[in-house]
Amino acid sequence: MTSKTVMCPQCKHQITIEGNPGETVILTCPNCNLKGKFTFPGEKSTGSFSIQVNGLTKIFKDLKAVDNVSFNVRRGEIYGFLGPNGAGKTTTIKAMLGLIHTNSGEVKINGFSINGESINARKNVGFLPERVAFYENLTPLQTLHFFCELRGVDKSVARPLLKEVGLEEAIDRKVGTFSKGMIQLLGVAQALIGNPSVYVLDEPTSGLDARWAKIIRDKIKMLNERGATVLFSSHNLNEVENLADRVAIINKGKLIAEDTVTNLSKYLHMKPRLEITIKGLNGKIPDVISNFQGVEAVEVKGNILCITCESPIRAKVISSLEKAGLIIDNIKTIEPSLEDTFIKLIEGGGA
């Protein structure tokens, strides 16, 4: 953490701010209320990427858990890391941070190699592991004091962090009495110590109920708005879709796709779906649609007819249904979701 005095370009008032190298701070002049941004100079030239992974491979006996994985996380980006159980997400994250030995590959964080410059590479990283574990005989306050000492951060940040994640009322309880969700929240609090510029979060909302999961999602957004780079893995596809600027999908140790959700759907030629509510349908597909040219898939659920087709065909479909005397109550267009894209990629779909 470094301090910097900057001058307001409008009223010339001087403001002292704190931040990490490469971090962007949003500030408001207390004198004239002008809003602005300041980016602290990096300790080393890192280009446009906070995380660079090239050819990462990890083999356990006969299992290639991570197979030549390469990707880059842009500075200030929220990057979602997806894959089914056993796909290699957690192994990739551990290898990225130098927590396990790798067979080959190179990783750089903020421009520093995780192999040759591990201290510099990791010192501005907030890490939340998949399985969080703390000393059960300590309180959450004592736990954060311990991690503050490890990171060389003033212990005064501990209480505000516990309040921030909703553990203020449990501040003097033993961690051994905590629920899984409370342990997860404490893990998030320790990752926030020192206000790092990069966060690597392995299943950050795991074990949390809907209320606390939303708090963590909002926290990720807030950190990103402050300029932090966030890489997180999740099994919750809606969560990734709502948070991530880009998403990478890994399966059987291989990175099989990387892009925005919209671009992945386009790559797979995935089409929007029409949901048409028709009175008296009662689970039967109308004859007029059965062999309609240009319709790729038809499914009916009660009075809702689901049709997958190209955009120019939609109007013809609706017109044909009306000409057949069917009464349409409602029409919705459902764009391809991350879940649809994910399933098609995992099942081997392609362009």
Structure description:
- This protein is α+β, with helices and mostly antiparallel strands and 351 residues long.
- The chain folds into three domains: 38 residues, no CATH class; 212 residues, P-loop containing nucleotide triphosphate hydrolases (Rossmann fold), CATH 3.40.50.300; 65 residues, Alpha-Beta Plaits.
- Helices cover 29% and strands 32% of the residues.
- The protein contains eleven helices and 18 strands.
What are the SSEs and their pairings?
Blueprint: E1 2-7, E2 14-19, E3 24-28, E4 35-39, E5 49-60, E6 63-74, E7 78-82, H1 89-96, E8 104-109, E9 112-113, H2 118-122, E10 125-128, H3 140-151, H4 158-164, H5 180-192, E11 198-202, H6 210-225, E12 229-233, H7 237-243, E13 246-251, E14 254-259, H8 261-267, E15 273-278, H9 287-290, E16 295-301, E17 304-309, H10 311-323, E18 328-334, H11 338-346
Parallel strand pairs: 7-12, 7-13, 10-11, 11-12
Antiparallel strand pairs: 1-2, 3-4, 5-6, 5-8, 8-9, 13-14, 15-17, 15-18, 16-17
Helix pairs in contact: 4-5
How many individual β-strands?
18
Q: Determine the CATH superfamily of the largest domain.
A: P-loop containing nucleotide triphosphate hydrolases
Order of helices and strands: EEEEEEEHEEHEHHHEHEHEEHEHEEHEH
Proportion of strand residues: 25-35%
CATH third-tier fold name of the largest domain: Rossmann fold
Number of helical regions: 11
Please describe the structure with a list of short key phrases separated by commas or semicolons.
351 residues, alpha+beta, Rossmann fold, Alpha-Beta Plaits, 3 domains, six-stranded mixed β-sheet, four-stranded antiparallel β-sheet
